[in-house]
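Human: Cast an eye over this sequence-structure pair and say how the chain folds.
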Amino acid sequence: MGKMFDISVPFYKMQGCGNDFVVIDNREMGLPVQDMPRWAEKICKKAFGVYADGIFFLENAPQNSGLDYVWQFYNSDGSRAEMCGNASRCAGRLTHALGIAGDKHVFGTDAGPIQVQVFPELEEVKVQLTSPEDVRINQTLEVDGEEITYHFANTGVPHVVVQVDDAERVDIKKVGSALRYHEAFAPEGANVNFVQFVDNDSLIVRTYERGVEDETYACGTGVSAVQVAMNKLGLTDAAVRIRTSGGEVLKVIIEEGKVFLQGGAELTFSGEIYLDSVGL
């Protein structure tokens, strides 16, 4: 091949409930962390790259850490995220399939260790998320002259939860963006989830995700924050099924104060990225 195609890097493309990710095994390649934001921007870019909501790099865990591996996770705009629920299921399923970890394992994130259980026969993965922090119920703030009631929970990532009568009618880009950048959540901002109550074990959720800066088909930490808030309000059972905008269903279970997220995780394709071609 010509010079343009001389340098390539293998990758995997995965999706969890329509939330899609590029995965690169960095255990031997050793790409420095400082280069990863640029790789995220270039590789996740629409039309010019692989196109994805985010990217994570798999790395060896520090010795005696009790972890099977660690990841470095970035959104498509190159910003680093503390945690991603859908991506964590993808990481669990891929590392199990590659023989890197067993069906029950633990890996490291910026939000702390994540416990994983893979159910190959169901093609699903269950992850125990970090314990929710900074849970706030029935808060108010003003957006474009309108007072909005919201709830808040950090499930590894900060999330705003807004109850609506009809999730389909919400202008996600407009309202989600206004809340995401609101001074109340400065400087890091927050993801924004609009939840429609169906029943005490069934919800519909649409999410505006920072870093993606648009609606995403599903957000695992987001639906978990929704369940934490709705359960605290006494509106939902301990286990709830949540339909995301991608049409998939995620299960969120609260057991003894711990939050578990269960749902699908699929390897859609694998290939090689020619670095020159994407500007790297």
The chain has a mean pLDDT of 93. Helices lie at 36-44, 85-97, 172-180, 220-232. The CA atoms of residues 59 and 181 lie 32 Å apart.
